Fold:
Amino acid sequence: MVRVSRLYTVAEANQTLPYVSAIVGEVRERYRTIQDRGRRHREGDEEDRAALKTEIRTEAERIHACMEELEEISAELKDYDLGLVDFPAELEGRRILLCWKFGENEIGHWHEERDGYQGRHPVPVDEPAWPEGETARLGQLNG
Structure:
């Protein structure tokens, strides 16, 4: 789990999306490459497997670097294939996660920490600063 150092409003999370989208796009591409190379590794001869293993390791290292970039802004990629990203926020004194899926133009959903993607709720329409107030501003979480 990402160590949270920033809490987002919808507007603030939306501002990161060009950057986040580029990173997630790269992760998805490299993840697919790893899956393809893994299949070829299982079917290949000894010489092919050695080269494929090196390529898989290189791709995995780059994915790890991408994940670190997301962690630096307190965003967490939850699903490599779908490109699901959570942004921490706080609502009425409890932690929630603003939820974005690769290809979406903006943050449109949120969910409780325990619920995950299946428990997504729509973000209130026309409220870019939602969640707003003292508890939702940028800041540090305790613990």
About this structure: The beta strands are 76-79, 84-91, 94-101, 109-112, 121-122.
